[in-house]
Amino acid sequence: MVDDLYQEIIIDHSKRPRNFHDMEDANRKAEGYNPLCGDKLKLYLRIEGDMVKDASFVGAGCAISTASASLMTESLKGKSRAEALKLLDRFHELLTTDSPVSQELGKLVVFCGVRDYPARVKCATLAWHTLKSALENKEEPVTTE
Amino acid sequence: MSTLVSVAPAGFNVERIREDFPVLKQTIHGKPLVYLDSAATAQKPHQVVEAIRRFHEVDCANIHRGVHELSQRSTAAYEETRVKARRFINAKKNAEVIFVRGATEAINLVASSWGRKFVKEGDEIIVSALEHHSNIVPWQILCEEKGVKLRVIPMNERGELILEEYEKLLNPRTRMVAVAHVSNALGTINPVREMIAMAHRAGALALIDGAQAAPHMKVDVQALDTDFYAFSGHKVCGPTGVGILYGKSKLLNAMPPYQGGGDMIRTVSFEKTTYNELPYKFEAGTPNIAGGIGLGAALDYVNGIGLDKISAYEHELLVYGTEAISQIPGLRIIGTAREKAAVLSFVIEGIHPHDIGTVLDRQGIAVRTGHHCAQPVMDWFHVPATTRASLAFYNTPAELDALAAGLRKVKEVFA
Q1: Pairing between strand B124-128 and B174-180?
Q2: Dist. CA A4–CA A125, nearest whole Å
């Protein structure tokens, strides 16, 4: 019934988020906040040259936002800044349009069910808004509103 | 699962009442709709829908203007609601009943008009820890403008206001005590009669936000001796965009207008404008006429059932629902006041309210999730949000069984 939204991999990452820790040697940090549901997260990146060497996050949120942050940090490692931003665009398309699912998304395709739950799109995009802010080196916390 | 029991008081037939609410007869995601979000807005009986339709199709005209037949009909119908609203809250005079957009606008009207004239730097205004944002922010705006101090009555772990602490906050600088009659996030029924008397003893005025009380219990503004009382039409089965501000006439008379425009004036020239008498002084511009007429039909409808019966039935539903969901492992009810309206706010360990809300929705169950426009309440209980099932007289014990079953499904999904 709700399996189209809460796929097994999403449940798994929400209960056991990967890369869920602070990062002392991070050189990019950003905070994201969804005032609608109180979800908050801090994203850490270590960028060397043009490449995301490491990514992690801490925070509290719903299953969708936690799993999204967890899977995002996994897929960022080893990507160039341009590739990371491109992935962000593909992810956004996945959630908000009916366009065919891009192969570049890899595991992130598990979020395809979210497009049928408009009220939950912001949960899935919070981590990605925060990523954009981290890559642009913004000081202000980003919000989904 | 709990067995279905009959909890209705004598002469109360919930199945017959449900026939009046067309919206309830539908399926959501293939399941019968279980509407448990009446604290956000109540559903509308067909009598209200019909009154609004009739106005638009038969009587539509502007009010207080024309000598023509339609204008007189619409004026009479609109003003009749004022009389019904006066009786609904037992105000002394029609002039004390002001039409507004809703409780939010009512509070803003008082904060802005009364506040502009009657508070000065160094004064104090008291609100409580369980207020809706609409009874916090208008006062904060006033405090910021005037250099006034906002003080907050604390609550205990059950979500009850601590009256001894309130007593300590009152002092000769206190100008206004603004408190909810019933908390939207917790369901707490505050002892407002006593709190108003305490405010008066300190020389302060009292404003009661009745948005969550008016649909569920008899309100008597004279017995309460409140200075102001606010409620929204849409929570009493009326349409959105119309509500009532009650104020004692001597206070309303002394207050400057809130908004300027048509209908609120007596004479206008570029040198000098004189204002209309109460209640029109506070009703600038063409109002929500259809909404006002719909509200009249809603008050008739609720009175037809009887608020005493509604209160009694909803209390039984609350007891039944509390018992039903308390069986869910890991569930904690937020707001356990001894005097409580039919609101079940809760958290489940390890599962975010938005996930609970989505899984319930897929089973046809509509609940509210989030901070309920009461972020200070969430902070107090150290939760980011709750799930809230809020009940009305058209709900049934079977629907509360469905909620409990739905929550078991939630536990399965996130097991």
Answers
A1: parallel
A2: 18
Question: Measured between alpha carbons, how far is B178 from B199 in angstroms, rounded to an integer?
Answer: 10
From CA B221, how far away is CA B201, in angstroms rounded?
18
Identify any residues that bridge with B149 across adjacent strands, giving them in sequence order.
B124
Spatial contact of A81 and A25, defined as CB atoms under 8 Å apart? no
Residues B156-211: pLDDT tens digits? 999 999 999 999 999 999 999 999 999 999 999 999 999 999 999 999 999 999 99
Residue A106 touches partner B, C-beta closer than 8 Å: no
Any CB–CB contact under 8 A between A123 and chain B? yes
Distance, in Å, from the CA atom of B350 to the CA atom of B415, rounded to the nearest integer, reads: 10
* CB of B246 closer than 8 Å to CB of B87: no
The SS3 assignment for B283 reads coil
- In chain A the domains, ranked by start, together with CATH numbers, are 8-140 (3.90.1010.10)
Q: What whole-number distance in Å separates Cα of residue A67 and Cα of residue A133? A: 19
C-alpha B290/C-alpha B51 separation (Å) is: 8
In order of start, what are the domains of chain B with their CATH numbers? 14-42+306-413 (3.90.1150.10), 49-304 (3.40.640.10)
Q: pLDDT tier at B1 (50, 70, 90 boundaries)? A: very low
Residues of B in contact with A38 (CB under 8 A): 370-371, 378, 384-385
d(CA A13, CA B212): 39
How many Cβ atoms are within 10 Å of B49's Cβ, its own excluded?
17
Residue found by looking up tokens 């609120």 in the block: B264
Contact B118, B149 (CB under 8 A): no
A2 touches B at CB < 8 Å: yes
Q: What residues of B are labeled active site?
A: 373
ipTM of this complex prediction, to 2 decimal places: 0.88
Q: Which amino acid is at B218?
A: K
